[in-house]
Amino acid sequence: MSFSKWIGGALGWSFGGPIGAIIGLAIGSVIDSMNGGDTLLGEGKRKRGTTYRSRPQRPQTQSGDFEVSLLVLASIVIKADGVQDQRELDYVRQQFSNMYGKERANHAFQLFKGISKQKISKRQVCLQIKQMMDHPSRLQLMHFLFGIAKADGIVTQDEEREIQIMAGYLGINARDYESIKAMFYSSSDNAYTVLELKKGASVDDIKKAYRKMAKKYHPDRVIHLGKEHQKGAEEKFRQVQEAYEHLQKELRF
Hints:
single chain, 13 helices
């Protein structure tokens, strides 16, 4: 699969608005070293004809739109502490390779190099994602971003601050944010936080919270993104199950 065919077929709503502008510049940096770039730009222009502001209803997010959103937001997180750690870059590459295969992951990283060189407005890109992407998919983005930040062994304050700011722009409420964040920290209260509970919750409350969170994080909620994203969704779902099992053992119910 050529880069031109990949980018032309992978993207939908993300070719409009501020993300479209970022991708356009990134594509330009890629095709500067390629021949036959006219076809690529032609496809991009056609797709950019409809911007995210002109759509009255939220379209269904496709795999390519999610993929591009990951690349843009990942570039922000990786640069948050002023250092592009190789372990974080390797994590992104590995995740993309696991989800999409080596060839598509390589195409994504060609694009990522162009994206990471740009000054990106967190607010603008996150508001576009919020308007165009459904809530379960945005939760999946949060989980991936914390995975990037933790790839070097620790989530720095700068990285956490960037993710928290983006969560607010993305319309992720505080309880959902803390739940996903707790999946990447070691604490005696983490199981409660993952289930969006306070320590000391009753057995009935824990059971109700588990049913609610299992439904919220079920992999089927992002099935429209394609099977390539099911593994990440299953990991998030597994962490909810582990939190519940931990509390079962702790409280012996």
